[in-house]
Amino acid sequence: MSDRASDIRASPATGDDGGGEVRYLSQSDLEVPTHQIVAPDGSYDEEAIPDLEEEELLDLYRWMVTDRVFSRRMVNIQRRGELGTFGSTRGQEASIIGSAFTLSPEDWLYVGRAWTPMFMRGASMEDMILFWRGIEEGQEAFAKVNAQIAISIGSHLPLVSGIAWGMRLDDADAIATAYLGDGATSTGAAHEGINLASSVGLPALFYCQNNQYAISMPYEKQSGANTIAQKALAYGIDAIRVDGQDVLAVYDAVSSARERVLDGEPVFVESVTYRLDAHTTSDDPTRYRSDEEVDHWESHDPIERYREFLKSEGLWSEIDHDAVVEEIEAEFDEALAAANAMEERAVSEMFEYLYDELPPELARQLAEFEELLERRPEMYDFIEQRPKG
Amino acid sequence: MQATIVEAVNDALHGEMERDDRVVVFGEDVAESGGVFRATDDLLEEFGSERVVDTPLSEIAIVGGAAGMAMYGYRPVAEIQFSGFLPPAFDQLVTNASRIRWRTRGELNAPMVVRMPYGAGVRALEHHSESLEGAYGHIPGLQVVVPSTPADTKGLLTAAIRDPDPVLFMEPKRIYRSIREEVPEGDHEVPIGEAAVRREGEDLTVVAWGAMMPPTLEAVDEGGVDADVIDLRTVSPMDTETIVESVKKTGRCVVVHEGPRTLGVGSEIVARINDEALMYLESPVERVTGFDTPVPLLSMEDFYFPHPPRILDGIEAALAE
User: Fold this and answer.
1) H/E element holding A222?
2) How confident is the model at residue A108, as a pLDDT?
3) Yes or no, beta carbons of A163 and B96 under 8 Å apart
4) Do residues A189 and A208 share a domain?
C-alpha cells in the first residue's frame, strides 16, 4: 500500500547481457504444468492423494452425482415447459465440486455455471428452480449463504475484489471467490477486477472453468494465449492449471490456493474441463462442434474417473450408487413440488425492492399501474407470470 | 466556517470518516496527492492507508469494487477523477450497483457513493467536461445528486454517505472554488430528493442545478426578473412537487441545464409539468441547455454551456407570450 519503502520508488531500467540481440518475452518459453492426481486410465500415485477423511471422499462422489442428476432433471423439466431456460453443468462436475468443497461458509462465492455449490452452502434445489424460473427469491436465498449468480459475464470480478477488500478491512478469516468461464477472461471487468486484487493485495480467488466454449466460441478463438492460467502472471499473481476432470486434483489445487488467498495473496486457477451439454437449453451445439469431439470428452467423464479411484481404494462398496441417485431424485421432486407452490405475486414486488424507501415518482407509477390493472382486467390477457415455469 | 465547494467535500469526508469507521475513500490519486482537485486532502494522514487508498487507473474496478465492498457491509466513497472517465464503469452502475438490493429482495444492498467532478468551463482536454446526469439519472436504482453551494455540498454528501443505496455525486467543478460561504460546522445533512428555492417570485419558475445555478441567478437578478428559482439539487429521484407547485403559481417555466438537450433532464421536467400542471401554463416551457454535440474542446467550449444572456433570452421568451 502507500507506506514508502524507500525515498526512491522508481528506478531506470538496468540492462542485462543480451549480446546486442533484441530478445522477446514469449509464451512459447513458458512451461505451464497441469495438476493431475488420477490419470484418465484411473491410475494414481498413492502419495499424491489429498488428506481427506473417507466420509469426505464419499461426499465428493455424492455431490458430483447431485450435480449431474440436478442438471438432467432441470433439462427435463425445461423440455416439459416448466422452466424458462437452463444451463447444464454435465461434464464439469469434478471442476465444480472439487473447488467448492474447499470453501467455508464464511467465504463469499460469486458463480457462473456452478449451481451445486449453492446446495453445498445450504441453499436448496427449490431456490435454484426459482432462480431459473426468473423469480427473485432465488438470488435472495443465495445472498443468505454469501453467494450470488452472475449473469453478465465477467462483470462480477470487480465485485468479488470489492468483497475481498471488505474482508481485508475486517481481517476476516475468509476469502471471496469468483467462478468465471473462459469467455469471461476476455472482458475488461475481469482484467480490472483481477488487477485490483493484485495491486491492493486482496483475499480473492479467481476460479476459471475453461469449459472450452463461450456459447459457440471455442477457446482457441477466444484468445491467443496458450493457456488461461498464464494470464495471471501479467498481474503478478500466481496461477495453477488443473485437470478439471479430476476431482481430487481440483480439490488439491483449490485448497492450496485458498490457503494462500487467506494470507491476502490472490490466486488464479484454470480448470480444464468441458461443457458436454448445450450452453443453455436454447442453444444447439451441433452447429459449432463435432460429435467426435463430444464423444472424446464423454470418455473423460469425471464421475467415471472418480468411481475408478474409489474402487481402487476399496471405497466403492461403501456407496450404493442407485440409492444415492434415488435420494437426489426424491430431493428434486420435493424441491419441484415446493417451487410449484409459488403463487403469482403482486405487481408491487417489482417496485418495492429498488430503494430502501419508495421514491414519490415510483410510488406514483405503481399506483397508476395498479389502478389500471383493476380498471382494465383484460390487461391480464397479456400478462403471464409463470411462477410454475 | 467559510468554505468553498471543494473544501465542503473535504469537510464532509472528514466528518463521515470520523463518525463511521466503515467509510472508506478510494480512487485515482486520492490518497498521497489528495486528489487532483485536493478534495481528499489530508484524509490519508488522518485516517491511514487502510481507509484512504490510491487505486490503479481502473474505473471499472473502482466502481465495481465499491459495489462489492458495499455489499459486504462497508460504506465506500469512490472518486472518479473526471466525469468523462465514468463511461467505462457504466456497466458496473447498471449491471451491479443499482440493482443489488432489487435482485436480492433487500437481502443485500449497496450503500456506496461515487463522487466525480463534472462539467465544462475549466479549459481542460477532451472528456473532462461532460454533464451526463440525464444518462445516469435514467438508471433505475441509482440516485443522482448535484449540489451547487458549499453548504449543500457538505449536507448532501453527508446524506449520500449515510444513504443505504448507491448515490452518484456530481460535483460542479467550474464553481469548485468560486463560491465561499458559511458552511455549518459538525453534523450537517441535507436530504436527498428535495429541491431548494433560491429566489421567490411571481412571474415565472426557473429550474437549474449544479454549475448552472450561478449564471441562472445572475440572469434573474441582473434582468430584474420576479422569478421562483429552484435549485433541483437531486436529479434522481426528482422533487416534482416543488417544481409543479411553483409552476402552478407562476404559469411559466424555464429549465436550464448544461448537458445535451435531447432526452435531457429538462425533457423530463417538461413532461412532469405536462402531467401535473399543463392547464396552468401560459406559455411553452423553455429549455436553455447544452447542445446535442460533444462538449467542444477548450478553445470553443464557451459557446456550449448556457451563460446569463442566453438564460435571460430563454426567460424573456417564456415571459413574452
Assistant:
1) helix A219-222
2) 98
3) no
4) yes
Domain hosting residue A56, numbered range: 31-340
Residue A208, number of CB atoms within 10 A of its CB: 28
Task: Report the 3 state secondary structure along A321-385.
Answer: HHHHHHHHHHHHHHHHHHHHCCCCCCCCHHHHCCCCCCCHHHHHHHHHHHHHHHHCHHHHHCCCC
Q: Work out the minimum CA distance from A229 to partner chain B, whole angstroms.
A: 21
CA-CA distance, A12 to A86, in Å (whole number)? 55
d(C-alpha B304, C-alpha B307), whole Å: 9
- Under CATH, which number does the domain B2-182 receive? 3.40.50.970
- State the DSSP code for A34: E
Considering the domain architecture, whether residues A120 and A153 belong to the same structural domain is answered as: yes
Encode pLDDT of B130-185 as tens digits.
Answer: 999 999 999 999 999 999 999 999 999 999 999 999 999 999 999 999 999 999 99
Going across the sheet that includes B227-231, the strands are B196-199, B227-231, B204-208, B253-260, B286-290
Q: Which residue has the cell 455449490?
A: A117
The CATH number assigned to the domain with range B196-320 reads 3.40.50.920
Residue in A99, A2, A96, A104 with CA at minimum distance from that of residue A50:
A99
Distance between CA atoms of A144 and A138, rounded to whole angstroms?
A: 10
Residues of B in contact with A362 (CB under 8 A): 237
Write the pLDDT tens digit of every residue in B194-253. Answer: 999 999 999 999 999 999 999 999 999 999 999 999 999 999 999 999 999 999 999 999
Do the Cβ atoms of B283 and B103 come closer than 8 Å? no
Q: What is the pLDDT of residue B321?
A: 73
Cα A106 to chain centroid distance, Å, stands at 17
Q: Does A255 touch chain B (CB under 8 A)?
A: no
**Check: complex ipTM more than 0.90:** yes
The rounded Cα B179 to chain-centroid distance in angstroms is: 16
Cα distance between residue B164 and residue B155, in whole Å: 16
Specify the DSSP element, H or E, that contains B310. Answer: helix B308-320
pTM (2 d.p.)? 0.96
Q: Which of residues 40-69 of B touch A (CB under 8 A)?
A: 44, 49-51, 53-56, 58-61, 63-69
Asked if the structure places residue A1 within a domain, the reply is no
Per-residue pLDDT tens over the stretch B102-115: 999 999 999 999 99
Vertex A51: Cα angle to A47 and A53 (nearest 5): 125
**pLDDT for res A7:** 86
- Averages of pLDDT over each 10 residues, chain A, 389 residues: 70 85 94 97 96 98 98 96 94 98 98 96 98 96 98 96 98 98 97 98 98 95 97 98 98 98 96 96 93 96 98 96 98 97 94 96 96 97 89
